[in-house]
Amino acid sequence: MKRDIVEEANKIISHFPRFHSEEDPFKILIETILSQRTRDENTEKAAKALFSKYNNVFELSKAQPEDLYELIKPSGMYKQKSKRIIEISKILVDQYNGEVPDTLEELLKLPGVGRKTANIVLYVGFGKKALAVDTHVHRISNRLGWVNTKTPEETEDELKKIIPPELWGPLNGAMVNFGQKICKPISPKCFDCILKDVCPSANQFLKPEKK
Questions:
Q1: How far, in Å, CA of 100 to CA of 27, rounded?
Q2: Which of 7, 75, 87, 132 could covalently link to 46 via disulfide, CB atoms 3.0 to 4.6 Å apart?
Q3: Which domains does the chain have, with CATH numbers?
Q4: In which band, very low, low, confident or very high, does the pLDDT at 181 lie, cut at 50, 70 and 90?
Q5: How distant, in Å, are the alpha carbons of 87, 89, 96, 199 from that of 62?
Q6: Per-residue pLDDT, 87
Q7: Known active-site residue 102
Q8: pLDDT of the residue at 22
């Protein structure tokens, strides 16, 4: 049976959509930094506390790292993240008039901003066609047999060849939800998966349920 990968991607997007309430590119950038190596609920808690005290890039650029410690502690690695957030804020004020750049090339010049973060900002903050590949997208794309890659960068390149641009942005958030609820790294819920009939990895996880 010939597979329709675009249809499979659309199924994941329609069944596991991720909605973004924030549209401010700066806040999206900072939230993405806060989200590194932590859960969504911790990111939300830290971001809410941070932006309740600092409303914009100009206020944050004048802060000291220790001013942020208690505010963003729920996100973990708070000392490192505090330093990075203020460093980025100063650069945006000094070099970009307080605006977040809207190109991949310029975003990647910011300290600590990799392709995943930059692409999330481009899609969520600016509405551009951008494909953010995190651990979920990389892992699931390989598990599904869409790609056969070793790194997220390779996965991004290969996915762009088979997934139409209008799906790039929505796919990241949907893959994250899909990976958290169904296609987990360990003990995925293949019985409940909408793609179990086409997934080449399903058989190794599908075992008869014990009575």
A1: 10
A2: 75
A3: 5-16+132-192 (1.10.1670.10), 25-126 (1.10.340.30)
A4: very high
A5: 10, 9, 16, 51
A6: 98
A7: no
A8: 85
